Amino acid sequence: MDIANYYEAIWPVLRNSFGTHARFFIATHKPDLLARGWNPYTHPLVEVLELPADLSGCNPLRDHACRRGYELFLPIVGRDNRSLLAPFDYEIFLDGQNHRLYTEPQFQQELLVHHIKPLSDMLENFFMVNRLPYVIDYTPSGFHHLFLVQRDTPAWQALSGIGHLEQEMLAFIQKTDPGDVKRKRPVDFTTASVFAGLGRLADYISLWLFTEYNRQHLPLPATICDSLPQCVNIDESWAGDSAIMRCLRTLAGAHRKNNDRYGLGGNPLVDVIYSQFDGETRLSLKRQSGKVEACVPADSDLESIVAAMWNLPLAASISSQYSGNIPDANDAMSAFVERYRRSPLYAFHQEFDAREDLEPGEGIYRFFHDPRLNEEARNMLYQPVPCFLQPMQLRHFVAHCLDIGWHPKHIGNGIRDIYRQNQFNFPFHKYPPATKANFYARIFTALYLVEQGKLAL
User: Fold this and answer.
1) With 70 as the cut, is the pLDDT of residue 181 above it?
2) Could you tell me which of 204, 163, 159, 193 has the C-alpha nearest to residue 342?
3) Which residue, of 296, 314, 335, is where some domain finishes?
4) Which pLDDT belongs to residue 422?
5) What gap in Å lies between CA 200 and CA 266, rounded to an integer?
6) What is the pLDDT of residues 11-63, one digit of tens each?
7) pTM attached to this predicted model
8) How many domains does the chain fold into?
9) Is residue 34 part of a domain?
10) In Å, how far are 108, 109, 110, 161 from 222, measured between CA atoms?
11) Is residue 358 part of a domain?
12) 163 contacts 199 by C-beta, under 8 angstroms
């Protein structure tokens, strides 16, 4: 079975994962795009293509999957701003050794079984206790945890009430580009607020997972945004971006890193659906049963899930037992939002958002003229690329600034000013610098306070 035949076998799952949500899809397959004349020096090696509302007939998604075998990505923002995809992402980060996850099956299985599964069990139990629907798709490096939020539902309204949008983001979402499939239609204020609200909930969930996972003292620690060289990465980087610029690989899709990044031949690896919860019943592949049944996380046959990533017929047989429909957030989301509102983290977020910004340029001026900054922090200022794009460096920088008395919002303002310096070619022409800078200042301050015992969840 090759990857095109695999997609044909799981086509109903793939079709349903896009469903009525997606207005377009993103596709990549570097060798095929190069063969078709793509110039990597002038165009990214991806295609962005619009989708018809009805995917039952011939359409570009089926062509790119079942004929060409592309890696495929779902947009976060739904058609006509009617839905929003929650893109929670967790993965192993090994700095210079990440290639081993895509080239060494036994090494990969041991890491996913011993480090990713404990994290996914915690997350699943948390969501099941709170009766929050989701689907989990295991990837070669971790898992995606997904649900949709439908417009004008109680969940949508609750999330929009906790989102915060910087002025720069407000201006960004109003811009359209008729030549860009992603940006030919605007993201409205409410949709952007819901996405920002999901980001605040992600802060809450991420810090809780960070605390609970690390209490087990496993050999590979967990942290947020790969801010340690070897870690279980609770990847929240999406929360610092614009919703329209974000996407996530589709359920059960091809994962082409072994081919496109590491130059290996043969089939790409694939993601495999691991479990689904509708608010009442959890479905997963029960150990040795050969079929999907309702069960608790401890019974899940993760070894078969991981083996299937390298075995297309097995992957097709497992993922095809699910519908592929991404569950909708239910009314329980409102109660979860209220739980977050009662937390000290919400109070911190409110204070952060309310703090007055420094004038443009004032933050970086204060950085350069603060004699308390240590040598490491000062060196970062003189080498902003790549330092201020690297979470490990940013985490240290934020912690040091807090130690010497900086306010978190003003740390964000200084990073914002650095990102706005176009002479350094920061890649923020499609992402508002203030939002990204505030995200890093906010999450790494919260992480610092949790580690110092100054912020309870």
Assistant:
1) yes
2) 204
3) 335
4) 72
5) 41
6) 999 999 999 999 999 999 998 999 999 988 888 889 999 999 999 888 999 99
7) 0.95
8) 2
9) no
10) 17, 18, 16, 30
11) yes
12) yes
Domain span holding position 372? 344-451
Residues 132 and 154 in one domain: yes
Q: What is the DSSP string of 265-305?
A: -SPPEE-EEEEEE-SS-EEEEBTTTSSEEE--GGGB-HHHH
Same domain, 348 and 323: no
- Cβ 142 vs Cβ 233: under 8 Å: yes
For the segment 216-234, what is each residue's pLDDT rounded down to a tens digit?
A: 999 999 999 999 999 999 9
Residue of 452, 107, 395 whose CA lies nearest to 223: 395
Last residue of a domain, one of 335, 356, 385: 335
Number of Cβ within a 10 Å radius of residue 454: 11
Q: Does residue 67 fall inside a structural domain? A: no
441 is written with which tokens? 């200042």
Listed in sequence order, the residues at least 6 apart from 341 whose beta carbon sits closer than 8 Å to its beta carbon are 162
Same-domain check for residues 256 and 210: yes
pLDDT tens-digit readout, 276-292:
999 999 999 887 666 88
Same domain, 212 and 361: no
